[in-house]
Amino acid sequence: MGLTEKEKRQRAKFNILVGNHIRKKRLEKNISAAELARLCFIDKPNLLRIEKGRVNTSIYILNKIAEALGISLEELFKGF
User: Is 72 helix (H, G, I), strand (E, B) or coil?
Assistant: First the structure.
């Protein structure tokens, strides 16, 4: 059973919001994309796809990103 068009749009919007928030937190901490990717054990292009909301990443990777940024997973989703 596939997603409806509405669900696809909602998922895409959510991924963009999460990605924008990750990028904002990364810039606040003055960490480069390459450095954050290294800290999370993912490649830089994949991190940039996450920040642009182009992929639906796992909670495991989101937790690694939060840890690398020195914030909780809860803080990563704060304000949504």
Answer: coil
